[in-house]
Design goal:
It comes from Gasterosteus aculeatus (Three-spined stickleback). One of its GO terms (molecular function) is zinc ion binding. Keywords: Metal-binding, Zinc, Zinc-finger. This is B30.2/SPRY domain-containing protein. The protein is mainly beta. The protein has a single domain, classed as SPRY domain (Jelly Rolls). It is about 0% helix and about 30% strand.
Length: about 160
Amino acid sequence: MKDKAVCESDVMSMSPCCSDPPPPFRVEPDGVRWLTPGLRKYSCQLTIDTNTVNKQLKLSDNNRKVTCVEEDQSYPDHPDRFDFWPQLLCRTGLTGRCYWEVEWRRDVDVSVSYRGIKRKGDRDCLFGGNDQSWSLSCSDKDYYVRHNKTVTRITS
């Protein structure tokens, strides 16, 4: 899985009060990179937290590619590791507006989670199966969104 996220660091700017009522505050990014047109200016590299990677996930391409495999990988035991579901977390949390670009084959789940999600056990740890996470499941046939044990099929 190759992914990029979009993060917005916000700086507040004010417009002169020449109208009635005054214009609202606008929150816009600041700096040279923001002059680039399109969404890529918001991208940042995500880094996998290798202490969270489930043993059925194989990392490759300098930890930028993740493949679900049948045989357990020889990762050291760690209290942050997901022990049941094949999932992982990134090292740094995201704030603000974010998006991902993911290259995938067959099936993929792209999820967001609070860092405090449970790591040990079954149902309560599944991304989208609790109130700590949301998940988008994609396949060649269907798309679903999961949150807090509710599954919603996305139709066109």
